[in-house]
TrEMBL record:
Localization of this protein: Cell inner membrane
Positions of transmembrane segments: 21-38, 53-71, 91-114, 134-152
Name assigned to this protein: TRAP transporter small permease subunit
Keyword Repressor: no
Membrane topology: Multi-pass membrane protein
Keywords per UniProt: Cell inner membrane, Cell membrane, Membrane, Transmembrane, Transmembrane helix, Transport
GO (cellular component) term, any one: plasma membrane
InterPro entries: DctQ (IPR055348), TRAP_DctQ (IPR007387)
Origin species: Candidatus Desulfacyla euxinica
Family designation: Belongs to the TRAP transporter small permease family.
Residue span, Tripartite ATP-independent periplasmic transporters DctQ component domain: 29-160
Pfam family, one: DctQ
Amino acid sequence: MHVLKRIVQVLDNITLWLARLTWWLVIPLMAVLAYEVIVRKLFVAPTVWAMDISYMLTGILGMIGAVYALYRGGHIAIDFITDRWPLRTQAALNTVFYITCFFPGITIFLWFAWQFAYDSWLIKERALMGAWMAPIYPLKMVLVVAMAFLILQGISEFLKNLYVLFRGHRL
């Protein structure tokens, strides 16, 4: 069980590292939005790039935020029903869910995201809206990276549930 604890700890630490790295994107997001508001309202000179940058940064924060939310147990679940069930029963249900829904669903999503991002990267896709036609292929690749990290965190959560299932208490 020591090896299992170590694997879970490493996977959880990867998620925490990723979240801490990504949180810093809030600063440039706030700066871009503040700059846009100031130049738009005070100088009546809106930018052509602020909207694109803000939705890209927000998209990255949201995608990586999904990984962190899984770590923190923040995703929508049926906890309001299962909270009163025995811990092992909850773990059994979660284990079945990860095997039948989470891993197949996220793997399919990762496959399609990879195709989507790869095709975009090949043509160096740019946004069609906006005067500066922002490159969007790096943002599409972030989707692939986020799905890969989501699978890693899913493995951690699956192992935590297996531990509860066999040991009767949380890791």
